[in-house]
Design goal:
Elements: H1 2-22, E1 45-46, E2 53-54
Antiparallel strand pairs: 1-2
Amino acid sequence: RKQDEIHYIENSIRVRSAEHKKAGAELDATCEICIKTKFADGIGHLCDYCHIRCCARCGGKVTLRSNK
């Protein structure tokens, strides 16, 4: 199911972020999904639903259904 897939992806992002924080990597100005893209201004895009900071390549391309 799509719901299970979303939960799996969110958990893998959290695990990857936790591993990098333990390793001492600074993630304030880095995409939290790919952990490659560094933001020049330190901002990036912030998801309104999961509050994950990501680059333009990783996020913001999914359209959500309205509850009509």
